[in-house]
Design brief:
- The chain is α+β, with helices and mostly antiparallel strands.
- It has a domain of about 120 residues: T-fold (Roll), CATH 3.10.520.10.
- Helices cover about 30% and strands about 25% of the residues.
- It contains eight helices and twelve strands.
- Helix 1 runs antiparallel to helix 5 and helix 5 runs antiparallel to helix 7.
- The longest helix has 18 residues.
Length: about 270
């Protein structure tokens, strides 16, 4: 059984060999929709937008999922030496990559490290924030979908959100990614069971004039966008939230053996064009 739905700015495909999984798949899509509604930068009613707008004014009660992903993002920022940073939404806005939902005129911005937990699911910041979870939320949504599938009795299958993919169950699946040297073709890079992979690549950037969405948080120029790259960058990890986030570390560092990969039991794959 296979179902596909447009979510998270891409198409999400859920697949399983079980024929009686319709309800479980529905619940999995509902989980993804929930992540999107909580963590969308574009939706001014999302919890993320409330954090950005008000956390420097008052304490904000947040959903446990939002709490979980913020803690993960803070941990990865610390152990990647700042290469992964969800606290640069204002720079993405300045570069034209995100909508201008926040008044920039009267203050500077802190970072995600300035968002403090005053209780398990309450946060407050000493400084105004402009967080963007776009570099990690898609992988988290995939994990939540898998969690719901398993809760509803699905023993094996996969969830694929535009290159962020998690496979669960004992049956391994072949993993294919686009060939950077011939982007119309795919290459098999191995197989995966009970794990996740996330891949980033701008395979048709020249043809389609695609703009890179990557900004180096350590760069001095606030609006400098990393050039669209022709290589392929993938991370294999136990959970998709880590695979998704760590692709940004790989892209910016160009180090397949970056020290933080070992911490998160992740493996980097870089394929040159």
């Amino acid at each position: 059984m296979k179902r596909c739905k447009p979510l998270l700015g891409t198409f999400v495909e859920i697949s399983t060999q079980q024929d009686n999984a319709e309800k479980a798949i529905y619940q999995a899509f509902s989980a993804i929709e929930r992540v999107q509604s909580l963590m969308s930068f574009h939706d001014q009613q999302s919890e993320l937008s409330t954090i950005n707008r008000e956390s420097h004014i008052r304490s904000i009660a947040i959903n446990p999922w939002t709490s979980q992903i913020i803690r993960i993002a803070q941990d990865i920022q610390q152990h990647s030496d700042g290469l992964f940073n969800c606290g640069i939404g204002h720079r993405l806005v300045a570069a034209g990559l995100l909508p201008r939902n926040i008044d920039f005129s009267n203050h500077g911005f802190g970072g995600i490290e300035d968002l403090c937990f005053i209780d398990e699911n309450y946060v407050r910041s000493a400084l105004p924030l402009c967080l963007d979870l776009g570099g990690i939320a898609k992988g988290f949504a995939v994990d939540m979908a898998v969690h719901n599938l398993m809760l509803n009795g699905v023993i094996s299958g996969s969830v694929n959100a535009g290159g962020d993919m998690r496979i669960f169950g004992s049956k391994a699946q072949a993993i294919h990614i686009r060939n950077p040297q011939a982007p119309s073709n795919v290459i098999e890079i191995g197989s995966l069971a009970n794990g996740a992979i996330a891949t980033s690549g701008f395979y048709f950037s020249k043809r389609d004039q695609i703009k890179s969405h990557i900004i180096n948080p350590l760069a001095s120029n606030d609006s400098k966008i990393e050039p669209a790259f022709s290589e392929s960058f993938s991370i294999v990890a136990n959970e998709c939230v880590y695979a998704d986030a760590l692709t940004k570390v790989l892209i910016l560092s160009r180090q397949e053996n970056h020290p933080c990969f070992k911490r998160y039991q992740a493996q980097a794959i870089r394929i040159a064009a």
